[in-house]
Amino acid sequence: MVGSPVVNRLVIIGVGLIGGSLARALKAVGYCGEIVGAGRSPDHLQLAMELGVVDRTETDLGAAVSEADVVVVAVPLGAMRDLFRRLAGVLPESCVLTDAGSAKGCVIEDVRSAFGGIPDRFVPGHPIAGTEKSGVAASFADLFRTRRVILTPLAETDHDARDTVAAMWEATGAEVTEMGVAHHDEVLAATSHLPHLLAFSLVDTLSRMDDRAEIFRFAAGGFRDFTRIASSDPQMWHDICVANRAPLLQALAAFNRDLTDLARAIETADSEEVLRIFRHAKTARDNLYRD
Amino acid sequence: MVGSPVVNRLVIIGVGLIGGSLARALKAVGYCGEIVGAGRSPDHLQLAMELGVVDRTETDLGAAVSEADVVVVAVPLGAMRDLFRRLAGVLPESCVLTDAGSAKGCVIEDVRSAFGGIPDRFVPGHPIAGTEKSGVAASFADLFRTRRVILTPLAETDHDARDTVAAMWEATGAEVTEMGVAHHDEVLAATSHLPHLLAFSLVDTLSRMDDRAEIFRFAAGGFRDFTRIASSDPQMWHDICVANRAPLLQALAAFNRDLTDLARAIETADSEEVLRIFRHAKTARDNLYRD
Questions:
Q1: A225, A87 contact by CB (below 8 A)
Q2: Which of B110, B15, B137 is nearest to B71 (CA)?
Q3: What is the pTM of this model?
Q4: Residue A189: DSSP 8-state
Q5: Smallest Cβ distance to B285: which of A192, A203, A252?
Q6: Considering Cα of A53, then A56, then A62, then A65, what sign does the dihedral take?
Q7: ipTM higher than 0.95?
Q8: pLDDT mean over B166-186
Q9: Interior CA angle at A95 toward A89 and A99, to 5°?
Q10: How many whole angstroms separate alpha carbon A234 and alpha carbon B278?
């Protein structure tokens, strides 16, 4: 990035892993004249300042978004509704509004109810990136590099606003694509929300077994990787699972049907069927990644 | 390790990831006078020779175990029964026999039926180590370092034989512990076999969904770790799941009961219950590992 900044004033509401990493990435390329970090916790914002993640912080929402060109909402899904309600009264008319929520249908409903309709400068977004860590201390500038960001623009969405948000994410090194809202929520339920649900549930089950001490003592490397996502933030994943529950429960039902069939094949020692499923899964996984 | 070898002639039947890594680890400390690799595939054994994993190879089982002091059976669980039957006629009386099978009840039954009882020099064993890779090319000397090896000696098992096997594994850097057979199979079903089952099943389900291309395309880092074990050897895991199916299906039933409760809590947006489970799981996982 050379020359003058593309965005004059960018405001990030919720400077955690995602918001903090976005700020770091945009700072690294001089994309913004000023990056303002906003939120409710002065301690949290002060840490973001100390880490050099943002240029200025505000706990007052009106002061934060005053004269903003772009506002990125990166708070947990469960905090979106209340935030959009407060934002509706203070957001400058010309300001582009986007979010980083892991489910899109619920965010769009929150915006619609808060603003009494979809503002034409609102661009729903979702960076497919993250780790099991959370908080600004875990943020880093390369989090989005080569990762995908999905935008789910609506009929009401202004093309310039969409282009502004797409260009911002591209400046972090991400690849931006578009998708329908319902489709996004189904795909993410299957590929992200369901695995988290299974990992949390399995660790919970094992941790309540009588021989839990030995179960965990004799866990091998595979278990460590398999359960890593169960170390994710419980509140954040609660919000996602509840907000996106219809597609999530649908994906879970499909999984359960297949798992029941597999269990029956194992019970009856139906080697051909068990092998067929395991081989099919291995082929799919191997095609996906070269670990 | 200094001075003369502890074991004169060690025979490893099945020179794959586990057998090959055991050979490499014992070679590195000069633990054996000679390490013989045995198996049915000349090509496979030749690769083990070329990699310097073993000193000599034999495809003839009688020739392989002749004058052996210790025989380690590291073939897949499904190949154990036939192997023990062939071994029963040729194993020297004084030779210590052990195995590296991931389930112990089934191996012990295979030995009992092959030998017409439990030989007093048979020590069932299970190194809790491995990766999603398999084959001798993936073997390495440090695979067992700081990992646990569980022995499940029986009433018939000779103490000297047990000590010989324990000392051999300790020479690889592993920590050796003992456990009852049924308890071992329950603990490993919960901590290893069930996660593999879930990972294979999930990847299979997702790979058959209509929007599978996008599901995999938008999978993030968490999915990669969660599904790594679905890249494991299908035949090996078929053998384990079928051989240890009673404890595995019991663990699966416990998991399913809890998962059903969790799904109901999500469906009814019972935030308190969802958060309780997620927090409990995160605490258990965080206490287990410091990633």
A1: no
A2: B15
A3: 0.89
A4: I
A5: A203
A6: negative
A7: no
A8: 97
A9: 85
A10: 5
Burial class (CB in 10 A: 0-12, 13-18, 19+), B29: middle
**CA B62 to CA B121: how far, in whole Å?**
18
Does B242 sit within 8 Å of A279, measured CB to CB? no
C-alpha closest to that of B39 among B51, B48, B50, B27: B48
DSSP labels for A95-149?
A: -EEEE--S-SHHHHHHHHHHHTS--TTEE-EEEE---S--SGGG--TTTTTT-EE
Contact B151, B184 (CB under 8 A): no
Collapsing DSSP to helix, strand or coil, A27 comes out as helix
Closest alpha carbon within chain A to B247: A267
Q: What is the CA radius of gyration of chain A?
A: 21
Report yes or no: A290 at the B interface, CB cutoff 8 Å.
no
Mean pLDDT, 10 residues at a time, over chain A (291 residues)?
Answer: 84 97 97 97 96 97 97 96 97 97 97 97 94 89 96 97 98 97 96 96 94 85 90 94 97 97 98 98 90 61
Nearest residue on chain B to A211, alpha-carbon basis: B187
Strand (E) or helix (H) holding B58: strand B56-58
Task: Flag if A216 and B280 touch (Cβ within 8 Å).
Answer: no
Indicate the residue type of B199: A
Q: What is the mean pLDDT of residues B259-282?
A: 98
Summarised one tens digit per residue, pLDDT across range B68-79 is: 999 999 999 999
Q: Do B128 and A229 touch (CB under 8 A)?
A: no
B228 chain-A contacts, CB cut-off 8 A = 222, 225-226, 285, 291
